[in-house]
Amino acid sequence: MAAQQIGVDTRKQLKPEEPIELDPQIRLVTRPGGVILFSPAQLPNTTGKTRFSIDFRTVHLDDVAERVGAPNLDSECTGTGINDYLRVRDLAHVPAELQALYEDGTPLVCSAAGARKAG
What average pLDDT is seen over the chain? Predict the structure, then answer.
């Protein structure tokens, strides 16, 4: 395995698809212990400063069953981790019949019409 140079990221990075307006700036400030939730489809950090984050990945079982969800724009992964999700209430895994939908590695069907709307 070749050594990777620290500070060099060779992965494909998201770029804006159109010019973005940087001003006026929006700064989200939370109370201590506050949380800001956002989609991974947001623009990358271009500030030159380190941003710390913790990922809490969630799925909605209806979306799993219908094979819809937000597009994965920032990686070229193959395979699935669907069997890693646990229900908080009882730590049960995603049902086996739903896990089986993802075993072949077929990508999600991502469309504005098919994706669950938040709210």
Answer: 74
What is the Cα–Cα distance from 67 to 108, expressed in whole angstroms? 6
Is the model's pLDDT at 114 over the cut of 50? no
Residue 30 in domain: no
CB count within 10 Å of CB 94 equals 19
Domain containing residue 94 = 58-119
Closest alpha carbon to 53 in 62, 42, 61: 42
Nearest 5°: phi and psi at 29? -125, 125
Question: How many domains does the chain divide into?
Answer: 1
Judge if pTM exceeds 0.70: no
Q: Note whether residue 31 is domain-resident.
A: no
Asked if residue 97 is part of any domain, the answer here is yes
Residues 98/82, Cβ–Cβ less than 8 Å? yes
